[in-house]
């Protein structure tokens, strides 16, 4: 249900831009206005969401510890999985953000006769997630060649590396192949594994279809359909220089590609994709487990009704006296 | 120790678990309170004692839960307030991508196959309402955005599933964003509390603890009787008469243990261990009747209740004029002490940085909170050769160690208890790696769920732990499961009886007491349980 809704939403998006460009000739709208609007929405929305999160305090230091604590000098502290210092926290966060450390712990449960529970090797989700994100980043950075003149050496080098195997002409980018495979895997596991299908919402399928459409239109332009790259670069450079113009003769496929990117950017701050920003703020990961070493303060710590010793002794004084326990007041 | 209630399905039946979720979506499926899998409501007299809202007698199986007229607004206002107070709450509502890595990590899902016990879906129960009332997408797109309205049925679902989570935090270890279901459950329970939906097994202990200083409601003279009795018993076993000061002003150290240690079995043998150890090293310490509870069922109720109950520890330390606090074998107590106490009721500037009076070791890791875990303390004693130990007195035990959830995932207390065990026992065997340390499985009865009416669910939730014990039982003849948690000691025995008969449960300081060679002791005829040491071999082959 969620999958179908999302699929048709992406189909409708493609249809809108197709009709808009081919029939209504709204090239300036799709080539300039929407991309600008999307970028502004992305930046403003992203900041807004971060501010909303940041405005709520972290009242307690609730680190999840995944390794040995620091206690005695003769016991080795697991500084990355249970950091007690800022350096350790930075290390833990780097592992988390760059290598998906926690997801790497994943296992798959199997119940056998007996009953016998087994925790099987399962790194596919980790692998697919990791290569998906990394290839997305590579593709994003590669695209900077459309927005720079001359193209920086680093971006050229990255392109060269990405096309290292020199398969086909133009040479196949590894990142293109990998991201298609990864997105396909992530989609298939969502529909094929019953538990995952059960928890999936339209908001889980939509970004997958959107990104799939995005990559597909890009791949078509690069490898299969002739597009005017010079004109596209002219448009891109115009956007960057805030002197937007729409050159003639750009294939509608490009406008589809650009529109899907715009939708992705505009959608981003209002969706689960904000995990990009959120992962940095997660209090179970980004706080040192130094709880008993350094006091953490809670800005809204308010006084509560307690039962004082005096009230306690008042109630039990006779019994305490009879039992020979020391008293504050005889 | 509770026995297996009548009508409980047999283990073979319970082990027939279907993991395949139903075809239809989860949002409209009303909750079904099945016998043996839910908790009874809190009695009004305990609610009133604690001044909690909507105190009344009510029954979860009846249609009318006697909610206040404005219950919905109360809950939504409560959510709004908590969203501004807890970054964790807002963040965890927003960033889940539903990757499902947490799904088969929850012991309740593993043992029941109920899809709403997947941590992700447990959180979605709350998230769906959050989206509906607090996000633009949810307000506009409704169901498509995964939003649904808060109804009485949703509230009942919350009651069932937030009291079917033991706040063990195992799922948060695997979550790529560190989303912690314990946090969500804690806040979900707080919201339920606002309209008077509390369970008996958390509120009665809270009320008892508030009044008498401990969950069991033991009054000061009863506490003294208990300790005196233990002193007598220890003398019978060891021939050594120890002192156990209570409410003694000016002692160096205040010792606080979970109340079950002095009232329940097998906790009691651990109590004998504390007494023997403290005597042997000549510790200048005191027990307290006012702060006679290490545990804190406030953790299973609300943040406010944590603070109300925990306040006693520092208040009593101050009144008695001790230098620092030593804490006994308890699980969730240590989450409270480690992650909440100093923030809520500190700073403890009237105490001193803990220093072991025996070894001179400064406990750097406790310099602010000023409270030391007993296994940190004892491992330091052993490392410095301050104890004379005869591990062969534990040779009738083939041990394994259950990392309790909170010391594992809130502290990372892994090596200290193991070091102590290995020093006092000759036979120690680890359970499989995916079931210990940060991966450890809950006993299935924590967070206030260890009641008899919830028995079937406890056995289901305890299956992964029991299964790992069964593995070492079959492979290494392990016959005792050691742990440092009072809830474990209360609930693991019956879990073992159900899934792995023949395996006993004990505390680490029980093993310490067995091995501890005391000055002036008579020849040890029995262990702390009164089992003849010479006949140990025979027992093993029974």
Automatic annotation (TrEMBL), chain A:
Gene source species: Candidatus Abyssobacteria bacterium SURF_17
Protein name (Swiss-Prot/TrEMBL): Menaquinol oxidoreductase
Domain of life: Bacteria
One of the record's GO molecular function terms: electron transfer activity
Major subcellular site: membrane
Record membrane topology: Multi-pass membrane protein
Stored InterPro entries: DsrM, Heme-iron_electron_transfer, NarG-like_domain, NarG-like_sf
Taxonomic lineage: Bacteria, Pseudomonadati, Candidatus Hydrogenedentota, Candidatus Abyssobacteria
Start and end residues of each NarG-like domain: 122-276
NCBIfam families: cytob_DsrM
GO biological process, one term: anaerobic electron transport chain
Keyword list, A-Z: Cell membrane, Electron transport, Membrane, Oxidoreductase, Transmembrane, Transmembrane helix, Transport
Subcellular localization: Cell membrane
Gene Ontology, cellular component aspect: plasma membrane
Segments crossing the lipid bilayer: 33-52, 124-144, 164-188, 208-225, 252-270
UniProtKB/TrEMBL annotation, chain B:
Annotated signal sequence range: none
4Fe-4S found in the keyword field: yes
Positions of region (Disordered): 523-542
Pfam families xrefs: Fer4_8
Molecular-function GO terms, alphabetical: 4 iron, 4 sulfur cluster binding; metal ion binding
All residue ranges annotated as the 4Fe-4S ferredoxin-type domain in the record: 87-116, 156-185
Family annotation (SUPFAM superfamilies): alpha-helical ferredoxin
Key words, A-Z: 4Fe-4S, Electron transport, Iron, Iron-sulfur, Metal-binding, Transport
UniProt-listed InterPro entries: 4Fe4S_Fe-S-bd, 4Fe4S_Fe_S_CS, Helical_ferredxn
Keyword ATP-binding among UniProt keywords: no
Protein name: (Fe-S)-binding protein
